[in-house]
Amino acid sequence: ADAELAFYQRAMGRLKLDGRVESTAMTSMLPFADFDTTGFHIRERPLPNAAQAPSVDRYSVSPDYFRVMQIPLKQGRVFTDQDRKGTQLVAIISEGCAQSQFAGKNPLGQQIQLGGRDENAPWATIVGIVGDVRQYGLDRAANMAAYLAQAQHVDFSYSLVARTTVDPRRLEDAARRAFFSADKTQPIFHVAPLEDYLRASIAERSFTLSLLALFAGLALTLA
Questions:
Q1: Helix, strand, coil proportions of the chain in percent (round to 5)?
Q2: Distance between alpha carbon 203 and the CA centroid of its chain, in Å?
Q3: Which of 67, 74, 77, 73 is nearest to 26 (CA)?
Q4: Which of 74, 76, 197 lies closest to 135, judged by CA?
Q5: CA dist., res. 150 & res. 81, Å (int)
Q6: Nearest to 108 by CA among 64, 152, 78, 137
Q7: Looking at residues 151-177, what average pLDDT do you find?
Q8: Would you call 69 helix, strand, or coil by DSSP?
Q9: How many CB atoms lie within 10 A of CB 190?
Q10: Cα gap 142→128, rounded to integer Å
Q11: Within 13 Å, how many C-alpha atoms sit on residue 216's CB side?
Q12: Which residues contact residue 143 at a Cβ distance below 8 angstroms, ignoring those fewer than 6 apart?
């Protein structure tokens, strides 16, 4: 886990040296592309049946993720480099999760587990609340979400995200070099701007609307 985390940090550090990159981060879930739903357990609220636990979208992210994706901080703080292995486990939840699961109560300082409830396992302390995101598509309501600090949970597959000052397609070579400088044996694949993921998420609806427009045009012509 230490070597894997060091690899990600070296790659991000190298890419940050490029003046065309504003910020970089790692995430276990890309918008519109990856899905990871799991149980949400509150320490002070045991349930008679684990199946009754609500579900949240789970993310493992590095500290700058919220900055890169422009997800606003609503309360508390985001992750920092101090949230690392060997320190108190921390978590951040979405605004929708806070309103649904802690109505009328401040979630900050509450302890949670994601997945199954295990009284002998460590609990993560909620340190921040961030804005909701539409992970599954712009036409879908935002799900409750919970975020874990990558340095404390490296057992996920990760993607790099970066906010740039130029067309991101012009930085593909720089991104590849950043990873190869960290480890030449690691394959780099599917380098694409976020707008490609957005376009794919609405492709079916766009196609349907195009067909409707075509038939409407034909009907008008016939009329």
A1: 35, 25, 45
A2: 22
A3: 67
A4: 197
A5: 10
A6: 78
A7: 91
A8: coil
A9: 8
A10: 18
A11: 6
A12: 37, 55, 56, 57, 96, 135, 136
H-helix or E-strand spanning residue 166: none
User: Within a 10 A sphere around the Cβ of 210, how many other Cβ atoms?
Assistant: 10
Contact 58, 36 (CB under 8 A): yes
Q: What is the pTM of this model?
A: 0.85
Q: Which two tokens stand for residue 165?
A: 């000052």
Q: Cα(143)–Cα(124) distance, rounded to whole angstroms?
A: 20
Q: How far apart are CA 25 and CA 73, in angstroms?
A: 16
Q: What is the pLDDT of residues 126-147, one digit of tens each?
A: 999 999 999 888 778 899 999 9
User: Do the Cβ atoms of 134 and 142 come closer than 8 Å?
Assistant: yes
Condensed to tens digits (0 to 9), the pLDDT of residues 65-80 reads: 999 999 999 999 999 9
CA dist 98 and 182 (Å) reads 38
CB 68 within 8 A of CB 31: no
* Matching residue, tokens 């609405």: 202
Following DSSP, what letter does each residue of 10-67 receive, concatenated?
Answer: HHHHHHHTSTTEEEEEEES--TTT---EEEEEETT---SSGGGS-EEEEEEE-TTHHH
Q: What is the pLDDT of residue 208?
A: 64
